[in-house]
Amino acid sequence: MTASPTVRRRRIARELRQLRERAGMTLDIAARQLDMSKSNLSRIENAQIGIKPRDVRAALALYQVTGPDAEALIEIARGAQQRGWWQHYSDVLPEWFEFYVGLEAEAATLRTYEAEAVPGLLQTEAYARAVYRLTAGEEGLDRKVAARLRRQEVLRRDDPVELSVVLNEAALLRPVGGRAVMAEQAAHLHTVAQLPNVTVQVLPFAAGGHPAMNAPYVVLTFPDAADAAVVYLENLTSGLALEEAGQVRGYSLVHEELRRMALDPVASLTRLEEASRYFT
């Protein structure tokens, strides 16, 4: 069973939408039968808002789902009402990013490309602090950094996430926070990249143009096959989750192409060592 309330809410949303469609009901008809607005049911089915277990039970009765299948979905709905650790940082994490962190907390694999900065899961405290100062100012700085460091627990938990990072060489050479901060960050990357569940590959300038030049991304998969993979994209003010199978497949192919173009993991470790010495 999924552990993250975000992933559970997403599972319930997809199941209810599929069950309604299988029952041959429109949103209008189902919403009327469930005594809720069409917009609310639409938001539930798109995982924008949660749904109480009693309302899940009513929806399942409407769609004529009973027995163990119904009880399993109701139990997932109960779990979706729990609070994830990230919700304790809602004063500094925007709602759209809380959604991503909820997915990340449950992910089995993460595949990501970053062009300008070290991914949050691999940042040192000092580097994270410097990035936040540049991108968001001083307000809530300590709590933002604390939340970022808390996210990194997925790398070292009992069943750690499998992380594949392709990192543009520019992120290694751009001096964020000063030389000491960058030297520590490069050394930290070198250390974490040697974890058995982490692969870091540096995409050198010499590789030239590549298919993700305008699109940093994260591709997430989950332990339970019932939870479909998702691509997460982010800009300065919002995040976007792409869930169609074709979209996920397209980004997965791009990631494999970037891995082919990047230095292999051993050569990347050497490049990380060189970057650490450069800033020392």
Automatic annotation (TrEMBL):
Q: Which segments constitute the HTH cro/C1-type domain?
A: 16-70
Q: Which InterPro entries match?
A: Cro/C1-type_HTH, DUF5753, Lambda_DNA-bd_dom_sf
Q: Name one GO molecular function term.
A: DNA binding
Superkingdom of origin organism: Bacteria
What CDD domains does its record include?
Answer: HTH_XRE
Please identify the protein, giving its name as recorded.
Answer: Helix-turn-helix domain-containing protein
